[in-house]
From TrEMBL:
Bilayer-crossing regions: none
Family statement drawn from the similarity comment of this UniProt entry: Belongs to the glycosyl hydrolase 20 family.
Gene: LOC100187142
GO cellular component: lysosome; membrane
Keywords in alphabetical order: Disulfide bond, Glycoprotein, Glycosidase, Hydrolase, Signal
Cysteines paired by S-S bonds: 70-113, 285-336, 510-527
Descriptive protein name: Beta-hexosaminidase
Active site: 331 (proton donor)
Glycoside hydrolase family 20 catalytic domain: residues covered: 175-492
Length: 535
């Protein structure tokens, strides 16, 4: 065992011997591993060993008289007051720190109230915990992030008292788009499971739920314009679908936590389930000049395909409140198009014989035009741009192919498109050991490009595709592995030390478990709280 390894083990042992909090915190040491450490790490933290008692039974948030009063903040006050009161610290208030007691955190919102989170929302805040506590933000979204930070700062001292260190925090996210993709087509996820993970997203300061709601395997989206899509394309039209009411519930739950809900309807590939309820939509495949019973991607040569897309996406635009929709555009197989004589004839008539990438361009271009006309901006997978589609200036390109993604990032940003990175953060790819470390270590701007190109990187996404996860295992597979991505996207680039992050992430994992999120352990360890009475 090397000296460094021995020192690390000694620190872990000291932390175990002196553990004092309900969340498995080590003894109160100044620095990143102190109890009450915040995840993701804030931009600037000035901490003191001076402690303030938090009167958790009487604690409340209240507006300063000159502050805006916003419904989103009102609801957050209720949630966080309840969260703090259920923190697992059972000792009643006593006067150990009677000269330094915090029972109220004043909140100041200096800007106008906003109802819906957006790509341009401001999430910065300033938090003071001390003799004059205050949470100050220009928007309600910054208040949400500050409330989460404050809730994480509270810990239990050796006498059983809820305390927080005197601290001054100036914080804002590094990236505007901090997303989590969940796939509800390969396996259906009940709404309560989606809500649980939206709650966990808020605990980690994610702000985009990328809802990959339909795919080849099933079509659980309930369309009132085309009801046969879910009646014939879902696993079960009785209970494995998302009704308009359910979708509205998810959007509202996310909104109150400052999370955007961006739906993905991926075409022209990944659409087998669509064709079950919409005859004529998909391409008929041929063998030996005759239909062989198989179908391929959406048929791009008939006007009815575009009429269908326009009607469906118009309905989607009315339900989902975010400005953006994800149009997919990835992994389009050409074999079926090649086999179909009607398509080859059409292509010959339009001077594109044999160029099926150009045929895909024709389809995607029309879908992009339709999408813009009905009021959506859009995100696309990287193949759309790789295949030469002309996109609008506000297009967002998602880089997902994990084969030298730095080359693709350089290429897409050189074309002037805003870009989000997903390639290194596919969480269904399991390996033995602490694989969160590889997610934590990837730097989004690690590519050859100008400062202007790197400024076009607006964030990234952790993606969990649904082939091998459902309601039984999705949360522990996500957390705290996705937390590593959360800190990479929120905290400054210089916050990148895996060794320093390890005890903080363990602390945060225990915090999530105490709050009811079944996050899996990082390594052999334990959380110090009452498992039997966990809320």
């Amino acid at each position: 065992m090397g000296c460094r390894d021995f020192f690390a083990v000694c620190l872990l042992l000291v932390g175990a011997v002196h553990a004092t909090g309900k969340l498995g915190y080590p003894a109160p040491l100044l620095g990143e591993t102190s109890p009450g450490s915040v995840w993701p790490q804030p931009h600037t933290v000035t901490a003191s060993p001076q402690l303030y008692t938090i009167d958790i039974q009487a604690f409340r948030f209240e507006y300063l008289q000159t502050s805006q009063r916003c419904h989103v903040a009102d609801e957050a006050f209720k949630r966080y007051q309840l969260l703090i009161s259920r923190s697992g610290i059972k000792a009643k208030f006593h006067d150990k720190y009677s000269t330094s007691v915090i029972s109220v955190l004043p909140v100041m919102i200096t800007g106008p109230c906003e109802d819906m989170p957006s790509l341009d929302m401001k999430e910065g805040y300033i938090l003071d915990v001390g003799s004059n506590p205050l949470l100050n933000a220009s928007s309600v979204w910054g208040v949400l992030r500050g409330l989460e930070t404050f809730s994480q700062m509270i810990w239990e001292d050796p006498s059983g008292q809820a305390v927080a260190n005197k601290t001054h925090i100036i914080d804002e996210p590094r990236y505007a788009h901090r997303g989590l993709l969940l796939d509800t087509a390969r396996h259906f996820l009940p709404v309560n499971v989606i809500l649980e993970n939206l709650e966990a997203m808020a605990y980690n300061k994610f702000n985009v739920f990328h809802w990959h709601i339909v795919d080849a395997q099933s079509f659980p989206y309930v369309s009132t314009v085309y009801p046969n899509l879910h009646l014939k394309g879902s696993y079960s039209s009785l209970n494995l679908v998302y009704t308009p009411e359910m979708i509205a519930q998810v959007i509202e739950f996310a909104r109150l936590r400052g999370i955007r809900v961006v739906p993905e309807f991926d075409t022209p590939g990944h659409t087998y389930s669509w064709g079950l309820g919409q005859p004529g939509l998909l391409t008929t495949c041929y063998t030996g000049g005759k239909p062989n019973g198989d179908v391929g991607p959406i048929n791009p040569t008939v006007n009815s395909s575009y009429t269908f897309i326009k009607n469906l996406f118009t309905e989607v635009r009315g339900q989902f409140k975010d400005k953006y929709i994800h149009l997919g555009g990835d992994e389009v197989p050409f074999d079926c198009w090649k086999s179909n004589p009607n398509i080859t004839t059409w292509m010959a008539a339009h001077n594109m014989s044999g160029d099926y990438a150009k045929l895909e361009q024709v389809y995607i271009q029309q879908v992009i035009d339709i999408t813009g006309a009905i009021g959506f901006s859009y995100i696309v997978w990287q193949e759309v741009i790789d295949n030469g589609v002309k996109a609008k200036d506000d297009t967002v390109v998602e880089v997902w192919i994990n084969n030298h993604p730095e080359v693709e990032m350089a290429k897409v940003t050189a074309l002037g498109y805003r870009t989000i990175l997903a390639a290194p953060w596919y969480l269904e790819e399991l390996t033995v050991g602490e694989d969160w470390k590889k997610y934590y270590s990837y730097e989004p701007t690690n590519f050859n490009g100008t400062a202007q190109q790197k400024a076009l990187v607006i964030g990234g996404e952790a993606c969990l595709w649904g082939e091998y996860v459902d309601a039984t295992n999705i949360s522990p597979r996500l957390w705290p592995r996705a937390s590593a991505v959360a800190e990479r996207l929120w905290s400054p680039e210089t916050v990148n030390d895996v060794d320093a992050a390890t005890p903080r992430l363990h602390q945060h994992r225990c915090r999530m478990v105490q709050r009811g999120i079944p996050a899996e352990p990082l390594h052999p360890s334990y959380c110090v709280f009452d498992w039997m009475n966990r809320k």
